[in-house]
Amino acid sequence: MHKPIPSSLEEHIGFWLRFISNQVSGRFEQQLALHNISVTEWVAMRTLFNANAATHSSLIDALGMTKGAASKIISKLEAKGLAKREQAQDSLREQVLCLTETGKALVPILATTADENDEYFFGHLSASRREDLKKLMQELVTLHQLKEIPTK
Length: 152
What we know:
single chain; mainly alpha; Arc Repressor Mutant, subunit A; 6 helices; 8% strand; elongated
């Protein structure tokens, strides 16, 4: 009885997704490092940018992180002068998180960096092919109910 020949790595879509993802993420990580920002810090900053103030629980939900991990990220951003914790207006016990003016000013710069990274890897694709690729990825996220935001 002959054993089937195992499929090669290159035959797997997952291989190609990981191959591209590692390259896209790695280059973006290098670009963020020029600003002394990690990918996780970027995701937190971008999340906070949309909300004037966010509770710990809303940031935890948005990032898909544990309370401790989210707290560490906020502490790092605070130490860099990019985020701050303030007392919630309607609660004496709850804090809200927000970006400082410096943090708010940095987000558009970092967003441009993200756009440039996308352009570097996907700029050769037509707008419709880029949109199709994005929709396929979103379809997989929805189908498999993926929730955790990629921060690594």
